[in-house]
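Hi C.,

You asked whether I'd gotten around to modeling the 108-residue construct. I have! Everything is below, sequence then structure, no commentary in between.
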Amino acid sequence: MKRFYISGPMTGLPGLNFGAFHLTAHQLRALGYEVVNPAEKQSESEDLSWEEYLKQDLQQMLTCDTIALLPGWQASKGAHLELHVAHRVGMNVVDVAQLHRDEIAEAI
């Protein structure tokens, strides 16, 4: 079974973009996947610096085999770093928008 890590922009967005993270986590879980959602982890954590959150996120990401990129990831320093690490350790990379199109196409 694939274990997905959700990566995308947070900083500077309303509600830290948690809605997009939670929606994607819900959709992937409904398809039967295990999901690491950093928005859930941040909601449970104390108030940490951006760097401390990133350290935690990278540790969690490395327990996964696939990184799922949310729309707008290109504008996120953290997502760029996560993607770079994912490439270096051989993780699968999927675009969430493409993943949804593929799932819809399979359902038709």
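If it helps when you're writing up: Residues 18-30 form the longest helix (13 residues).

Thanks,
B.
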